[in-house]
Design goal:
Oligomer: homodimer
CATH architecture of the largest domain in chain A: 4-Layer Sandwich
Number of helices of chain A: 12
CATH topology of the largest domain in chain A: L-amino peptidase D-ALA esterase/amidase
Number of strands of chain A: 14
Largest sheet of chain A: 8 strands, mixed
Radius of gyration of chain A: 22 Å
Largest interface: A-B, 66 and 66 residues
Order of helices and strands of chain A: EEHEHEHHHEEEHEHEHHHEEEHEEH
Shape of chain A: globular
Strand content of chain A: 25-35%
CATH class of the largest domain in chain A: Alpha Beta
Number of domains of chain A: 2
CATH superfamily of the largest domain in chain A: L-amino peptidase D-ALA esterase/amidase
Helix content of chain A: 25-40%
Distance between the termini of chain A: 39 Å
């Protein structure tokens, strides 16, 4: 069951390789409250720049997405194109252009093929209701191997509200960038301020805690629309129902971020790195990312090599305080490092690394903060996929 | 011609695979002034910890090097072992232990095989003078494919002084770490303070401007001994000869750092990335490293793909101020980006990328600072070499 009052549509404008859908619409029958987070990259795609301005109103009704072209590094023309895309859709749907958000993913530095896009707008609008959320999840894929969809249900005042979310991955999107796009929609009535805060918190704990290769895209975006069609009393941070709503949103973004890492380009293994016993969350996060982004750690895990020295080195150059003689490291349940020294349990650890999902716990024994970061291994296939000349 | 008054020796203690030398001595007949720089990694190998203390005296006479074992993450036993290695060599050579520096490279977290080392000390000392600097350069190799040696000559007061240097690479040293070791020796008399300052400056401009994979080792070390055997008037920063000395040392470290990158593990291409027009050197360096460490940039270059969008994205997430609409990017002489927009010269740029040595210039047009960073491409061979289980 999808959230009430949302309609979906897809079309093919041959922006990416032919034979695949590359345009999509998410349309709320009623004007909705909206919240969003955007890439911190200083080079932002044209539609991201526009969305950042629009979202100040907190209102939205339509999200238009194209895959195959990022509309990034495209100058003034790119801004004009993104604005035109919003205008055309707004006109066709008879909504205000300020309520239409455009999101793009694909190749950087190539002008949007506007003729092909324009020619497909009426078809895209005409298709509304003919596609479902799964079709949209497929249309926004680039090198993703699977569409990524989650749904969470919450009981509020004897009604069942839904949060549905889709995303496309940071498998590092061929032919270009690691763009993460995420669209969430719910029929639950939520105060905009509450929606905004909860989304930011959820994104911080989920999408901002994953890394495939450390590269951050020009287009990363997460948007959530809440249209209130459930008819529940408006949820604010003081509502009794807020805890359940917050948990459902956290769960949804966490699950989506896990799906992204699992579909990491060329990845054969899903790796959770937990750093605990840090003096602060910031320290824990920095250390966890230092390990998660180390090519040496990632290739060792790919090769089933419990090479904990590489982890110690990555902790050492992370920049946070480390006391080598206090560090414990576990691969699964196998303690491979005790107080900074190897335990010699390499053979047991090697068995753990042969699994598809690997959990590494690093205890710094310096404080009480802990952070989990998700990543994947680095393989020859990653190199092969990303060396390919853009087609 | 080597610097006067230095003797060399090598031996095999089966620390690394048998059949290869893994112990080496660099011995100055006279006590020398010494200067050094060491890894900034907070997890430091045992011998590094000892060297950092010893070098405060500014005096040295012997450098003992072993390959095959990093003596890192080895706790108190590691410190004892490193101290014993220095003591044994000092005893055999009848010099003070405080003048003996031990440097190690190889696997992390495995105790030094002291029995095998001890049994080879007298042979190592007995061999002094039977090996040359080339033999030492070979003995300190791990996954390096070639020994790395440079020599520079300087005329001072009608005499010809020599600076000779050897190093081993950050090809990421199999089976473990990207350890960079560099040993320089000269017969020129140099004031310790001057030697120290000049080495630090030279390292900053050379070894600290290269990256193979962004991982920093627990063992990185650069040492220079000056024994004054040339008999020249002591060089200080005020000496007329200082300029020539400084230039020669810069040249030597620059050349050695280039050799390291060229021998980067699995590398097929040598890449120089120059960021200019930055507001400060710190900004330029940060931007250049952000590009040089991007797996996406490195795989694109490997695949001859002039994928400048990945460079723009790496500049964008480097954290420095960027004005997208001012950025120019050149591959060789081909201007691929003009004021933030693609010039469409992809075919020309592709030809440039087919070369073995590639120069990328990024002009931010924001200021007057510039920095060059050297790196190499990321290949399947890198992954293959680093996934291999330690043997």
């Amino acid at each position: 069951m999808s959230p009430k009052g949302f309609l979906f549509s897809t079309a093919e404008a041959a922006i990416k390789d032919t034979g695949r859908k590359d345009l999509a619409l998410i349309y709320s029958e009623a004007e909705a409250v909206i919240a969003g987070t955007f890439t911190t990259n200083k080079v932002k795609a044209a539609p991201v720049k526009l969305n950042i301005k629009k979202i100040r109103s907190g209102r939205g009704q339509v999200i238009m997405i194209n895959s195959g072209n990022a509309n990034a590094c495209t100058g003034k023309k790119g801004i004009q194109d993104a604005a035109e895309m919003a205008r055309l859709v707004a006109h066709g749907l008879n909504v205000k252009s300020s309520l239409v958000y455009v999101c793009s993913t694909g190749v950087i530095g190539v002008p949007m093929p506007m003729e092909r896009v324009r020619s497909k707008i009426s078809e895209l609008i005409g298709n509304l209701g003919k596609s479902n959320i799964e079709d949209v999840a497929a249309a926004i894929m680039t090198t993703d191997t699977l569409p990524k969809i989650v749904k969470r249900w919450i009981k509020i005042s004897n009604k069942r509200g839904v949060i549905a979310g889709i995303c496309k991955g940071a498998g590092m999107i061929c032919p270009n960038m690691a763009t993460m796009l995420c669209f969430l929609m719910t029929d639950i009535a939520v105060q905009q301020k509450t929606l905004d805060k909860t989304l930011r918190d959820a994104v911080r704990q989920s999408f901002n805690r994953i890394t495939v290769d450390g590269d951050r895209s020009t287009n990363d975006t997460a948007l959530i629309m809440a249209n209130g069609r459930l008819g529940n009393p408006l949820i604010t941070e003081r509502s009794e129902a807020y805890t359940a709503f917050k948990k459902a949103l956290y769960d949804a973004t966490t699950e989506l971020s896990r799906l992204i890492v699992k579909d990491g380009e060329g990845a054969t293994k899903f790796i959770e790195i937990e750093v605990k016993g840090a003096k602060s969350n910031a320290d824990a996060e920095r250390a966890a990312f230092s390990v998660a982004n180390s090519n040496l750690v990632k290739t060792a895990i790919y090769g089933n090599d419990p090479n904990w020295g590489r982890i110690m080195a990555a902790l050492g150059y992370s920049g946070i305080p480390i006391k080598e003689e206090k560090v414990d490291i576990y691969f699964g349940k196998v303690k491979i490092v005790n107080k900074g020294l190897g335990t010699g349990k390499d053979e047991d650890a090697k068995e753990v690394l042969k699994e598809k999902e690997i959990r590494i716990v690093i205890d710094l024994h310096l404080g009480r903060s802990s952070v989990k970061v998700l990543t994947c291994d680095l393989t020859e296939e990653y190199v092969r996929a990303n060396k390919a000349y853009r087609t």
